Amino acid sequence: MDKIVIASGNKGKIREFQQIFTDFHIEVVPQTQFDVSNAEETGLTFVENAILKARHAAQQTQLPALADDSGIEVDALQGAPGIYSARFAGEGANDQTNNQLLLEKLRDVPEAERTARFQCIIVFMRHAQDATPLICQGTWEGRILIEPQGENGFGYDPVFFVPTHDCSSAQLPAEIKNQLSHRGQAMQLFKQQVQKYL
Description:
Blueprint: E1 3-6, H1 11-22, E2 27-30, H2 46-61, E3 65-74, H3 95-105, E4 115-125, E5 134-144, E6 160-162, E7 167-168, H4 174-180, H5 182-194
Parallel strand pairs: 1-2, 1-3
Antiparallel strand pairs: 3-4, 4-5, 5-6, 6-7
């Protein structure tokens, strides 16, 4: 195994995975290099969608594939937006419209009931028929603020309050966020476990 395809065109994610695999002398390439279209995310869970994305990339490229799926779950909204986090405010939604809708839905919810968590699932498949993919999960607990705070990060970071650091995720320096975050946790697990798959 000398090459792995990542089911994403996200430069930040690709860079993170490239760093992990440098030690193993494995090249990580985005699926966009092979003109692979995005998989249809028809699953009802983060795990299902990550598997769909990894399998699609592996089928199209005949290479081992990596995918992740992530989002935010808000308890007062029965776990929404969940798997629909990226398109919470509809098709063509952006970070700002998603955050606005979330804050609007929680307008009358008291602080103590605004608990939420970010979830991240990473899936690694050796081939498209891999019946035992490596699945790693990271969870980051917090709550939803009343208004956005901070300029760093993306997605729901400005409205996600981090109790351990008494600020929003968007107010954390990148290196701190990467240690604490759902993706950071899933990446650490992945790093520890991927070796036996290689």
